[in-house]
Amino acid sequence: MSKKILIVEDEQYLRELYEEIIKDEGFAVDTAKDGWEGYSAMSKGGYDLVLLDIMLPKLDGLEILQKLKKAGLPKKANKKVVILTNLSKDLAIAHGLELGCDGYLIKSDLTPDQVIKSVKGFLE
């Protein structure tokens, strides 16, 4: 059975790019275009990896993590959660890690090959 990945990203171009290159590697992919869609999908759980943008409309990535924690959902409802951001020294990264994220990726530094390498690395 293929690994299941959720991409929560409001920038359509990036969301579609990540979805295409990850699907091409044989992974099952769901996407969410804003914070509420991401929260809803993450609440249901079952993802091997969630790529979670921080800056999202309606509900940002950190608010999603806080709501999931307050709801008492077990951290492992989604096996790994990785923050996506453009800021390498973002305080939000530290806060996300405090909330249980497994790592982060700097979007501006990612090539398609690096996305795949990172996804596979987090899934090991």
UniProtKB/TrEMBL annotation:
Pfam families named among the record's database cross-references: Response_reg
Xref: SMART domains: REC
Entry's Gene Ontology BP terms: phosphorelay signal transduction system
SUPFAM superfamilies: CheY-like
Modification 4-aspartylphosphate, positions: D53
Domain of life from the UniProt record: Bacteria
Keywords, ordered alphabetically: Phosphoprotein
Entry keyword annotation includes Phosphoprotein: yes
Lineage of source species: Bacteria, Candidatus Shapironibacteriota
Cross-referenced PANTHER family: RESPONSE REGULATORY DOMAIN-CONTAINING PROTEIN (PTHR44591:SF3), STRESS RESPONSE REGULATOR PROTEIN 1 (PTHR44591)
Protein name: Response regulator
